[in-house]
Amino acid sequence: MTYDAEGRVAVPARSVRVPVVAAEDLTVTYGRGRRAVTALASATFRLETGDRVALVGPSGSGKSTLVHVISGLLPASAGRIAWPALSTDRLPVGAAGVVFQGLSLIPTLDVLENVELPLQINTTEPPGTVRRRAMTALDELGLGDLATALSNELSGGQAQRVAVARVLAARPKLICADEPSGQLDAVNAEVVTVHLLHAAATLNAPLIVATHDEAVADRMNTTWSIADGVLSGAGEATCSS
Question: I need a surface site. Which of 64, 128, 204, 224 has the fewest CB within 10 A?
């Protein structure tokens, strides 16, 4: 127990959690004039390190748009989004790791080269260090024996696990996944989801997963819903870190 200068028990200040992502009245509109379509309407939310969010909604509801704005792939039309834990209003290159619905591997590169590529672009580490990081990530996902395979030699589940390994190797501060199990059967969907959760825990990063899959959504600690661009449930995100 500690005391202040007057002999009273000193009460430590409560730690303040700084969100990784914070958005207010975030809006994304495609097109102009009569052809304008609002894909995201005045969304306000925050993501903290322990958040594991399932983003659910029908096709065309705005799920992909929201994921792409959070990960810095798409600019907002109005409102504000910032990454306070990264001390910036602009997401640094490589700070977000993204797993897409479709296969995102470069067919002319082998598995190890695919995992290395973002590191080669975003880091000044020597090539040997980059290769070791990439190989370690593949080993963690049980893919070490496929390091020299090309993408057309992989199953859909293996390819998505490589995409997760690429995120893990890059060590981002934020992980986003856009329908990562959309083209997978139930078994592979579960495997990929487990690895995404493992990556988030290892990196102490928030995870947001846009999904139609109830089994995937059930693995997250909270659910946000979106319909016609309107986000709900974001005020209920929990942080377990």
Answer: 128
User: Cα 190 vs. chain centroid, distance in angstroms?
Assistant: 17
Task: Give me the residues of the chain with pLDDT under 50, please.
Answer: 1-5, 7-15, 236-241
Q: The CATH number of the domain where 158 resides is what? A: 3.40.50.300
23 lies in some domain: no
> Is 34 within the bounds of a domain?
no
Structural domain for 108, as ranges = 49-73+89-223
Cα separation, 151 vs 113, in Å, equals: 11
